[in-house]
Structures are given as C-alpha cells and as structure tokens.
Specification:
Helix 1 crosses helix 2, helix 3 packs antiparallel against helix 4 and helix 5 packs across helix 6. The chain has 283 residues and is an alpha+beta fold. Helices cover 30% and strands 25% of the residues. The strands form two sheets. The chain has a five-stranded antiparallel β-sheet, with helices on one face.
C-alpha cells in the first residue's frame, strides 16, 4: 500500500484538530470536534485528543492481528479516556471528541470503519467512485436545526432558538436514535459503519475530513469522480489547495474555514497488514 497525505489548519495560529497517519497496510483519519473556550472542562484540548487517539489506533493496527476494527477503536477510546478521566470532565458534552475513518488491507480485502461525518471514497476498478459516510450526525443536525427556519438572524429570538437547537443536538450525541462519535464511551465504536471489499476490485481509496470534502459540497468545485481525478493528477495537496483557494475567494461564503485533511491509498494489494515487506508510503 502506498499512502500520501495532506493537511491544513483552517485558522492560522490555531492547532490543526485533524489527525492522519498510516502503518503498513492501514490508514486512519480523525476530524476533531469540541467547543472553544471550554478549557475548564478539558485543559488538553481537541488536538491533543485526536493525536492521542490516532496514535493509539495506529499502534493497534500495526500489530496486524486482524482484530475487528470496532474492537480496535473501542480499546483506543477507552485508553485515551483513562488518560484524562482523572483531570478532566470527559463526560461533559463539550469535552474533546472526533470523527474516525479507518481502512485496512487484510487477507485480500479492504476493511473500513466510519464513525461520524468523514468521507471514504472507494476507487472501484471499472466502476467509478463509491462514496461512504456516516450520515447520522448530519441528519440529527438537520432535525435539531429545523426550529431556526424563518427566524430572523441577528435577533434575540434567533439567539434563543439557536441555543436551544445546540442543546438538542448535544442531547442526541452517542445516544440511540441520535449519532455517534469517538469521545469518552468505548461503546460508541459498536455503532460505527463498517464494511469490507475485495482488494482486486479497488484501484485505491481516499479518506477526507469534513473540511476537505467541501471541494464537492458546498463549493461544488468538482464531483466525487473528479476528486479521484485530482488525486491521480496532483495528490492530496491538490484537493486541500482548491478548498483553501475557494475560501479565500469567498470570505463570506457558505462555510467558515475548517481544518482539511486528505489521505490517499493506492497499490492496495502491494502488501497487507501482517506482511513484513513494503513500506507505509510517504506523507
């Protein structure tokens, strides 16, 4: 497996809360989330959480023992929760959390896991892209934001309703009927979207954080087939660069700048987890 990566912080002077990494036969991407100004809840911060959780995942994936990806994620979440449970209020809804995307080549198949709204793009041999994501957070956000429709922005009424919507969304986090994300509860891993695909059917796979996926939506700079074309021509830097240029051209555009990260894996059958030959690629 050959792996290339690119990442860019959304705001200068602030830490990049995304994490990407790879070991032989596997790659991970985490998109950190939290609420600014909550240092009293967790003094470590979101970037610390994503980097610690990402490192724990890579350590387990490097063993090449073929364990279920959800089991690996649950153990990693539990490990990092234990690291700061004694100093931080990790059960608070505003404490650090992260989306998770994992791919692993093992025994002739590509296994994947998705938790929350990162994107996985399978480059199918002769079949074009297949896009996978966990849509539950987007669905919950749409439902919880419905009361804002028709409320004038910049008014006390808007602020009141918005605050109520935020609380409603938090109440759905890591709850049945809501959405799931890596945080303090290892049981969230059991709710991840998982699957497996024959390696012979795949020319490659791309992992995109929510910020990087803006190249397709909302900026509409290309479609998902175009994403694969851009990766083939210019690598992950091309995707991230186009997102940043779109943000610069539209400072009041559809979304504020966000951390953007892309991981592109090719030569999937070159070697798999547990095969001592080969390298993890560049990044």
């Amino acid at each position: 497996m050959h792996v290339s990566m690119a990442t860019s912080a959304g705001t200068a002077g602030r830490p990049n809360e995304d994490f990407a990494g790879a070991v032989p036969g596997a790659a991970v991407l985490l998109d950190g989330a939290g609420i600014a100004g909550t240092e009293s809840i967790c003094h470590h911060g979101v970037a610390w959480y994503t980097h610690r959780l990402g490192g724990a995942l890579l350590g387990r994936l490097s063993r090449g023992d073929g364990r279920d990806l959800a089991t690996i994620l649950a153990a990693a979440i539990d490990e990092i929760a234990a690291e700061h449970r004694g100093t931080c209020d990790i059960t608070n809804p505003a404490s650090p959390q992260a989306t998770v995307a994992i791919v692993r080549a093992h025994r002739g198949r590509l296994d994947h896991l998705l938790l929350a709204d990162s994107f996985l793009v399978l480059d199918q041999v002769g079949g074009g892209p297949r896009v996978l994501t966990d849509e539950r957070e987007v669905t919950a956000r749409r439902v919880c934001s419905a009361p804002l429709e028709g409320v004038p922005g910049g008014t006390p009424e808007y602020d009141r309703v918005h605050a109520s919507c935020v609380e409603a969304l938090r109440a759905r986090r890591n709850q049945p009927g809501g959405y799931w994300i890596a945080k303090d509860d290892p049981h969230a891993a059991e709710e991840a979207v998982t699957g497996s695909h024959p390696l012979r059917d795949l020319a490659g796979v791309a992992l995109l954080s929510n910020g990087a996926s803006r190249v397709v939506r909302p900026y509409a700079l290309t479609d998902w087939a175009g994403v694969l074309g851009l990766l083939a021509a210019g690598g992950p830097d091309e995707i991230v660069g186009r997102v940043r240029r779109a943000e610069a051209d539209s400072p009041a555009g559809p979304a504020a700048p966000d951390d953007a990260t892309v991981v592109h894996c090719t030569d999937l059958a070159g070697f798999e987890v547990g095969d001592a030959s080969g390298t993890a690629g560049d990044g």
